[in-house]
Amino acid sequence: MASIIIGSQWGDEGKGKLVDILSQDYDIVARCQGGANAGHTIVVDGKKIALHLIPSGILNERATCVLGNGLVIHLPTFFKEVEGLKQKGIKYENRLFVSDRAHLVFDVHQICDQLKEAELSNGASNDSIGTTKKGIGPAYSSKASRGGLRVCDLFHFDIFKKNLTRLVENKRKRFGNFEYNIEEELKRYEGYAEQIRPFVIDSVYFMNQAFKDGKKVLIEGAQSTMLDLDFGTYPYVTSSASSVGGACTGLGIAPNKIVNQIGVVKAYTTRVGAGPFPTELHGDEAEALRKEGGEYGTTTGRPRRIGWLDVVVLRYTGLINDFTELNLTKLDVLSNTPEIKIGVDYKYNGEVLKSFPASLEVLAQCEVVYETFKGWNTNLANCKSFDELPVEAKVYINRIEELTGRRVKWIGVGQDRSSMIIKP
Ligand code: GDP
Ligand code: IMO
Ligand code: MG
Predict the structure, then answer these.
(1) 396 and 272 in one domain?
(2) Ligand 1, pocket residues at CB < 6 Å
(3) How many percent of the chain have pLDDT more than 90?
């Protein structure tokens, strides 16, 4: 049986930390979508490790880690991360696998990501998405338009060569004659083909065999439901299915295998990149939380935008994923905030909306209705149980449960692996 950990907001909720903690009880930890646009930070005994492609279960040597078919993989980034594991003394041999059906991200995709962003920002209005420039959109576009290359293609190099050349020619037709040396790239990939071979598996067979053998599977979501290609604030989204459905298509497993959908909720909201953010804060209030929470992107280093918790978002992402339980993270970051707000409804033309609107034009005209809470002004570092939390923090958590109709099971009160309260 499988459990999945999914972001409920706009990413960076702290998914990596929970995956790391829970992976101790699982046999397999698998990523199902996205690529190196993800940045998952884990802190163990004060030591930080940031992962982009490799699942956050890698620190638990008992767990086997899988990069599923739904990912788009930039092999140089993959090998750099593997090198990082080697240097830290983390054993990955025979426990880190890559799907033969996963698509490849080439440097040409990253170049086109940048060119497309530049194009979008070069008008009367700046319409760029604020992507991570990791080539994610262009790689998924290649996949959808059936011009992409997959991991298995590396082992049939004549065809690989023909198809990569065609891909680059197509991109040049679209973007002009950008600098890119296809011959050098092909030479590099001939080397990667041999390097990646020991990692490659038929992940569809592997995952389903694992279920047959009674193994426990933890699926690590990347990005988040509000960045999902279908359900997010389109076009300010990523290009993959980053909600629960992506687990089935991204791993080749049936929906009935997934028995827990764990939603990760930051105690306030952040967003990197452009796009709507109804409860966004500006000025000193935002800066104080950004500083307190270390809200700078793990992948790009960009300052994250900051806002209050938005329950309209949580109810919407709760519908899509049917969260069985929530992990409320970074509660400690709110400790110095005298007054805390939660956005509880959106009003459009004076009427409360039933759910999160599709149209960004409607969303822009919505007024957020807030509830206000007294802060706790207490350091949470020593709180090891729900009972030990200050009463104001308990009120805040209980109200989140009421407003979302979902149970909070884990509460993050610090960066370290050990700073996680389990709520009875
Ligand atoms: P992910 O992309 O969802 O895995 O989240 P990121 O790793 O990008 O960002 C979350 C950041 O918050 C990381 O630096 C985590 O170490 C940190 N973090 C996670 N949970 C907590 C928490 O409960 N308290 C604090 N202070 N930091 C946390
Ligand atoms: P994790 O897994 C936060 C955002 C980018 C941009 C949009 C599209 O760490 O939560 P892309 O490069 O995917 O085409 O960018 O999506 N984005 C993320 N924001 N956390 C992430 O991943 C993100 N991955 C992509 O900032 O707004
Ligand atoms: Mg992140």
Answers:
(1) yes
(2) 7, 11-17, 39-41, 43, 294, 298, 329-330, 332-333, 412-415, 419
(3) 98
Asked if 309 and 186 sit in the same domain, the reply is no
The pLDDT confidence band at residue 300, using thresholds 50, 70 and 90, is confident
Domain that holds residue 124: 104-196
Q: Catalytic residue numbers? A: 12, 40
160 and 14 co-located in one domain: no
**Residues 242, 219 contacting (CB under 8 angstroms):** no
Over residues 386-404, the mean pLDDT reads 98
Q: In this structure, which residue's CA is closest to atom 19 in ligand 2?
A: 11
Q: Identify the residue whose C-alpha is closest to ligand 1 atom 27.
A: 415
Task: Determine the pLDDT at residue 125.
Answer: 83
Count of CB atoms within 10 A of residue 229's CB?
19
Rounded to 10 degrees, the C-alpha dihedral 244/246/249/250 comes to -120
Nearest-ligand number for the alpha carbon of 42: 1
Residue 57 has φ and ψ, to the nearest 5°, of -85, 0
Paired with 28 in beta bridges are 64, 217
Q: Are 363 and 281 in the same domain?
A: yes
Q: Are residues 275 and 389 in the same domain?
A: yes
Co-location of 243 and 360 in the same domain: no
What CATH code is carried by the domain that includes residue 315?
3.90.170.10
| Ligand 3 is an ion; residues with CB less than 5 A from it | 12, 39, 298
Q: Is the dihedral of CA 22, 220, 129, 182 positive or negative?
A: positive
Q: Using one digit for the tens of pLDDT, what is the confidence trace for 54-78?
A: 999 999 999 999 999 999 999 999 9
Q: What is the CATH number of the domain that holds 87?
A: 3.40.440.10
Which atom of ligand 1 is nearest to 19's Cα? 4
Residues 81 and 131 in one domain: no
Q: Which ligand is nearest to the CA of 242?
A: 2
